[in-house]
Give the backbone structure.
Amino acid sequence: MYRSALFYLVALAAAIGVDQWVKYLVETRLEFEVREPVLPYLSLYLTYNDGIAFSLLRGVGDIGLIAVSVLIIAFVIYLALRSGPGHGFARIGFVLIVGGALGNLIDRAVHGHVIDYIMFHTETWSFAVFNLADAFISVGAALVVLEEVISWLKDRKAG
């Protein structure tokens, strides 16, 4: 049990560390709101998000957004602690969700905004600019859902 807990803590620290390191590189090497093409439909584009997920709750203020983030992180940790030992996908998913949320929380607490820099686009359209922490949260949520689907299929097959 302690080895698995240590694994998850190391994975959590790695997610936060990589997120913060990449954001540091982006902040120190990219010009603000200048698109730097990487691939035909992918660019680096440094911008700041004053809200959460797609700029929601933008007018709540830093303290409110920090409080919402802390509550969400606490709830996800609660769910993670309730997951059984056979739920590896979900546990990795919870680690990614918490790591991404903590990475963005660090930004908000230190800078007053979240640093975003990944932009998918065409010549006439662009997706919301996001960051690695947001990707961790999305992949983590997908892993939790995958675990639920697998459990549901196993229960259905057994019953």
Remarks:
- The chain has a mean pLDDT of 91.
